[in-house]
Amino acid sequence: MSVGVCAAALAAALTAPAEAAPAGAAPAPTTGKQTPHWQLKDSGTDVRFRGLAAVSRRAAWVAGSKGTVLRTTDGGAHWRTVSPPGAAELEFRDIEAFDARRAVVLAIGEGEASRVLRTDDGGATWTESFRNTDAKAFYDCLTFFDRRHGLAMGDPVDGTFRILSTSDGGRSWKMLPGAGMPAAQDAEAGFAAGGQCLVTSGPRDAWLATGGGAHARVLHSADRGQTWTAADTPIPAGDRARGVFALAFRDRTHGIAVGGDYRADQASPRAAAVSGDAGRTWTTAAQPPPAYRSGVTWLPHTGSAALAVGPTGTDLTTDGGRTWKTVDTGSYDTVDCTPDRGCWASGEKGRVARLE
In terms of pTM, does the model score above 0.90? Predict the structure, then answer.
């Protein structure tokens, strides 16, 4: 299948009737003469945005290095700097937004560098709701089941991954007991590469992606993080630079995992895998992306189409993750779509784009 045919498939996916759209969602756009493509939006900065939260076609948040948080409410035409005061030394790698005014952002790093902050007024003010005080801990990702319940995950300490839980929208956090977490492999960790190493689907299911150990694994919880089971994936591991970097589940059963080796001079065979049983088993994509990928998202209202992004390009699948074709060669770290077909991507050198 040529890139042209793949672009046509993407156009069809994005303009298909949205019978499954929730009440109040925007109607499907009419098919235009141009095939869908990333359109860069001027963010006004050159920081790297590994954190992205798409709210709609008009509203989105990005978070990145130098403590930077930006917000748009006009489709990316203008970006407002809404960074927390005094955060210039922090490295934001994940942001989750409930709407255009309420968001939770995660800073990564060892010890007190790992923090969580929340805003309720579009970033005009921020409140720190968690600061890590364990010098051995390093937090990677956070996710929400709904507007109240969410989780954050950290690399293994004393042999198990750390899990924080919130039931008040990220205003406070508590550490969950480690007894329900499988033992970590030697050198196993999460990758804070694009805010998708911890994801949810539905009210109780969560999945956690790992690498660095002998096997690249996906851990699944069906009870909001209280207990977990681990499954090996076919994505290569056995090195601190290899593993599963991002996950996306379109429901509690069907998932995609992407990753590889993030080093530019290293090949990434078998960089994607799919699951049809809630992550209990994983199968290598028959035709995976050609290189390392750090972000993945399902296209809304399609059931079988998804996008994966990385430093060397964007790939499209229209068959549930079994085969992938490159549709763009621009560099992006993460990608996110909304029910009104607002698909956004962000990455290095201030790059932010919306699918047009």
Answer: yes
